[in-house]
Design brief:
Chain lengths: ~325, ~325
């Protein structure tokens, strides 16, 4: 992704610190870590930390601190993916079998905990407890959100609930990634606020698009199965919108609540299409990106601002 | 336990802060937390934080900080129990069904993560990153130890491996609990070192006795099933010692490697008894307690020292 070129060399340092931190004497830990690292990932969150970190004063110590925080952020993300795959009984992640499948649920539980622990060891290096606190809040918010989502499985909810859920799942983490970068680089208060709002809105847009891609993507590009939400009974924005229309609700519910719901995926997708639900969701994502761009516009005109603006536009354009 | 009376009122504050932290708007989170809190527990680790915290200068702010760290330490412990029960497929914990049984594996994964996150939110309040770092190291060491133990299931190991394993599982956490208390209360360096060594040795003694109780305890007192280690193929000190004797090894291996090993529990226990393995393990625990008392003896003569000495002696005397 071109807009990451500005922080390319720092992202390479993130990858280096990731390997270094996860390389362990224990053979199984090393193997699982290596497995996770090879799987790659978009590195969106560390890139946000690094880009947000450009709005403070420059300095070598600040840059090292920023790379440390960015690495820790990616480790938190990896930990939540490994644990989420246990919860969702997912088979594939980042294009390869999920850790729980390749190894076992116990190994996945421990690998996630190991990643959390090592993330906080890195956060502690920042010598700033505000950074530790914010990182811990991210994990807390995501857990509470996941528990709520877990409980809401196979239950229809309102659009308001949906926005609350994706804020907990993604919005808060992307907001926090920006804020952590701003904190670690001592960016001024005005930039910190604009970066946080920017992160919040691209987080929401990112998750709405993610939920759309669960209907529309090519699985080989996505790196995981499509229809995953449907399979575990998580109803996202397109379903919620289509159901809000009297004329489609009954039909939709018939298929959603039937046995072997995945066999009806194409039929359900057709209903989402004709009801305008897919267009509606895409439009809401575009609205969020516009909000994000509004806040990015409040930032000083440095190259990182352009990168953030391009990143926001990519989020609705992506197909993986 | 009488030796906790010195810090009784602070332990009550720990329970209060635990409830307050875990009480959440989310109904399921609140329910699981409440379930965990009602299960109780010995509160050994927070008590160590509080007792170790008596060796620094007194002060209201220090006391509040100490209670915060003690609470966070108990939350880390609760998180590891909830996750360990997934790994060991345990049915009962602290006398009631394990979270994974009462709810489900997904809820147990998330409840553990939620406890970790909230523990680090509390650690961050200490405004001392050395505290955050040490707490994260505890989780890291325990994960690496658990992964090693998981891989070593149904494999015979040396006594040296056993000591390394219990150091990771318990020794390091009890050592860290003492060190965290010393750090939070600004205890002088000399006390910090003696407290750490004390914690290390009572940790080892505690785990050796725990492993013995898995053979000898009354399940209703223990709050979990006996024979749990045997059931998942974890061979502890008594087995390792008995197998080190040529005359018992063959017989023992026959029963250990047979189908339905738990049906042979009494026979195996008899072999451990006549081979002197149970006595040997108890004596090693007593040796560790003596080491702990040696280090406690280096501490200033304040009431907390006596409490730590009594606690060390209780550890080998307990039957639950």
């Amino acid at each position: 992704m071109g807009f990451f070129s500005l922080v390319e060399s720092s992202l390479e340092k993130v990858d280096g610190l990731l390997s270094q931190t996860l390389r362990q004497e224990n053979a199984l830990v090393a193997e699982v870590s290596d497995y996770l690292l090879r799987a790659g990932g978009k590195r969106l969150r560390p890139a946000l930390v690094l880009l947000a970190g450009q709005f403070g004063p420059a300095g070598e110590a600040l840059d090292t601190g920023l790379v440390t925080v960015a690495t820790a952020v990616e480790m938190i993300h990896m930990a939540t993916l490994v644990h989420d795959d246990i919860i969702d009984e997912a088979a594939v992640r980042r294009g390869i079998p999920a850790v729980r499948r390749q190894y076992s649920n116990p190994v996945a539980v421990l690998a996630g905990d190991f990643l959390f622990a090592n993330a906080f060891i890195l956060f502690a290096r920042s010598t700033n407890v505000a950074i530790v606190d914010l990182a811990a809040q991210v994990v807390n918010v995501m857990c509470v959100g996941e528990i709520a989502q877990h409980r809401a499985q196979r239950q229809f909810s309102s659009e308001e609930d949906y926005w609350r859920r994706i804020e907990a799942k993604t919005g808060y983490f992307l907001e926090a990634s920006c804020r952590l970068g701003a904190l670690a680089s001592h960016a001024p208060e005005s930039s910190r606020e604009a970066l946080s709002r920017y992160g919040h809105y691209i987080g929401l847009a990112y998750q709405v698009v993610d939920d759309l891609l669960d209907w529309l993507a090519d699985p080989s590009k996505l790196g995981k199965a499509v229809g995953g939400d449907l399979a575990v009974g998580i109803y996202t924005l397109p379903i919620i919108y289509a159901r809000s229309q009297e004329s489609y609700r009954k039909d939709l519910d018939h298929y959603l609540l039937s046995e072997g719901v995945l066999d009806h995926m194409q039929t359900i997708k057709d209903i989402l299409d004709v009801s305008g639900a897919l267009d509606y969701a895409r439009q809401r994502a575009i609205d969020c990106v516009e909000q994000a761009l509004h806040y990015a516009g409040q930032l000083p005109e440095i190259p990182a601002r352009l990168a953030l603006q391009e990143l926001a536009q990519f989020i609705v354009a992506r197909d993986y």
